[in-house]
Design brief:
Number of strands of chain A: 10
Largest sheet of chain A: 6 strands, antiparallel
Helix content of chain A: 10-25%
Shape of chain A: globular
Radius of gyration of chain A: 23 Å
Distance between the termini of chain A: 52 Å
Oligomer: homodimer
Chain lengths: 428, 428
């Protein structure tokens, strides 16, 4: 594996992640000092995307309808600065770094800094491909006003009306250290090292302006967001997300995901954006594993092997909620998850789910700390999430095996134009 | 994605993970009750391995010289039973389950259980390929004698002499809840969901006999164990494991990894096995990221971009420890990690490292809880690990950025013959 073509070690050229790009020299010199300088979008973004890369710029942010990647690192931040200018500089620096990393380039674009400076990029993704990295940014209610109702950055009059701390649902057992946050970043990639590298570098750039509040790694997607993807399984062993909203359903995506200008006149900056609901849902793995398959399937409403509704057919057959078995009871039980979550029982609303399985070790009794990190994108949480979760938390038989331990809601601004920055319209 | 060939949901045939194997009907009916019945190796193992599968049976356990997979779930267990027979039954049940899962088959081999029983397999890996899963088992010192010196299972006279709690090294900050254990399982796979599935199912099988003590997920391998693999990077951003012992170095592997019959006459059962050193090493990510590249490279002893020793050449050039720079100082600093860890400064000993990067969220100050989960396989920890770690913990300049927070040592029995079970010779 010796590489005779490698330059001698003290030749500091060519730190680009993908040498094949021949990228030396392009990109702005964004260093540790440069981060605070609001570089905007680096020139890194002027070359076409590398193979395996999702475009960073566009009408909507990437990482929403993009076919879901397999790994997640999600981070929520508390903003620590009181300066609007510093907050805007942070968003500009994050934008530049995200644009570079989405293309498989190091933060700073690969231009070397003085040898006696810390490197612009932390380095652990050097040599790795872009891995379809997407970085999706959101704004929490606390960014607009603090706990005392104080307008923190002169933007509270533009706060979206639906952006509030989610209500307490029955059986919630929320941990403050896993909930809330002024800013969020959802990093998704095929390679977890690429996702972790991105969150680490964005945290580093935020130093002095925002501090990591909580973060969550996810190792397996639990929903498909494209008809090109097979339905994955959650840690209950069942296929999850069979009926999820898919990117290919254009008009439904417009109806249920993207905020429209008329939705909220005070928050027109959010047009083409969305809302992100995050819920850390612990699963009672050990009790579930001692439950009969018949009961598991009854609680879910689908068979485990193929994901078909218990009313018959195969995975993508629509469930029939009126069909009854020989015992006279509905084949889809009244308290089954699929019945209660189905659009036909929720005023026809749908959502785009984009969650991940997680395992965070075990507790002192040897029980796995594991479950589903639920992420959903909705046009209106008041219509699409809160009523459904209220109903599920009261009536879903599955709740016996679930505990919600983290919760957050974020407004997700629209995509970034070239030369712009995340959330630009909010601060215009 | 509708599958017209799928059987109706209530037809309980065909739960095999890979339908293409056409596996229905083979394998023994190992159910929740069967686990305690000591089924030994299921018949599942009589068919040839599937594509993407590593062989489970052999002279040595898989997961040591097997080219390192990208993802890890490592688990340590406390044995809770006092019955030798139950311990042996656990090892037999684990063996059967590991043989099946290594082939991409569900626990129990896919034979359906009564619909009113819990499923034999928890299901989240159904449909996923074997993903090169390896399951490597080890025995901790506490399996042989308890804290009072009591012989727990009539095997203390066969305890390997080197199998002791590792000594306290300077600067260790070990957490008991991340250290020790009577049994360990290292699950490695290309897909984290496959590794997590394996540990979960083995934990489930252990219910009543052993309880999970601690566990660790790793997302990126930090060493190559084969010349066919590129050198990966750790979270300091540097290539790690350039000089690692590789599977292809047959005589060195025999000399430094596998225990020989003459090594320990009281523990001949360990022949063809090894010792596993596990160390959870937290990295001080934020201070490191504020350190000049020049200082980072000096502390490591290699350049960051290419991994070449600072004495010159490219990645696989042997370092020259005597070469001095124009300032008269050695180019490889006296306290550099590569110098202090090099075989030439450690009586010529080497080890086979097989560690992983980890990130476990963040602390209340927003600092990442991240680092390297160090795993090394050695023939003799007294010669190959303890002296080196003593020296590193005293003199390695990198220690300023490292804190060891977990520690364990396990004796890794030899591979399993067909029809046998893990550790069989110890209990013969």
């Amino acid at each position: 594996m010796s590489d005779p073509a490698a330059p001698p070690p003290h030749d500091r050229r060519g730190l680009s992640r993908r040498r094949l790009l021949g990228y030396a020299g392009a990109g702005a010199a964004v260093g540790a000092a440069g981060f605070a300088g609001g570089m905007g979008t680096a020139r890194a973004t002027d070359t076409p995307p590398a193979a395996g890369a999702y475009a960073f710029h566009g009408r909507h942010q990437a990482g929403i309808v993009s076919p879901a990647q397999d790994r997640l690192h999600f981070a929520a931040f508390d903003v620590t600065t009181t300066s609007r200018a510093e907050l805007v500089m942070l968003l500009k620096s994050w934008t530049a770094a995200a644009a570079a990393m989405s293309r498989g380039l190091p933060v700073g674009g690969g231009t070397p800094l003085p040898y006696d400076s810390p490197p612009a990029d932390t380095g652990e993704a050097l040599g790795l491909p872009p891995s379809r990295l997407t970085l999706t940014f959101g704004f929490g209610p606390g960014l607009f006003r603090d706990a005392n109702g104080h307008d923190r950055f002169g933007i509270d009059h533009r706060r979206p009306k639906a952006l509030r701390t989610l209500p307490h649902f029955p059986a919630d057992n929320l941990k403050p250290e896993r909930s809330g946050g002024d800013l969020c970043v959802q990093a998704c990639a095929d390679d977890p090292q690429v996702a972790v590298h991105a969150i680490r570098n964005l945290s580093r750039i935020a130093f002095g302006s925002a501090a990591l509040r909580w973060s969550q790694l996810g190792f397996g997607r639990t929903s498909s967001t494209s008809t090109s993807q097979a339905t994955p399984r959650n840690l209950f062993g069942f296929k999850d997300g069979t009926d999820n909203l898919k990117a290919e359903e254009g008009s439904a995506v417009d109806r249920f995901v993207w905020v429209a200008p008329e939705d909220d006149p005070a928050a027109r900056w959010l047009s083409d954006g969305s809302y992100l609901v995050a819920r850390r849902i612990n699963m009672a793995i050990e009790p579930w594993d001692r439950t009969a398959l018949s009961e598991q399937e009854r609680l879910i409403g689908r068979d485990r092997a193929h994901g078909a509704p218990l009313s018959g057919g195969s995975e993508h057959t629509a469930p029939s909620f009126s069909t009854r078995g020989s015992d006279g009871k509905p084949l889809m039980a009244m308290d089954s998850h699929v019945r209660l979550a189905h659009p036909s029982h929720n005023d026809g609303v749908r959502m785009l789910r984009r969650g991940y399985n997680f395992t965070d070790g075990n507790d002192e009794l040897g029980r796995l700390d594991a479950g589903l990190f639920f992420i959903a994108y909705v046009r209106d949480p008041d219509r699409q999430y809160i009523p459904m979760q209220t109903r599920l938390s009261q009536r879903d038989g599955l709740m016996e095996y679930l505990q919600h331990t983290g919760s957050a809601l974020f407004a997700v601004p629209p995509g970034v134009r070239r030369g712009g920055f995340v959330g630009e319209a909010l601060f215009a």
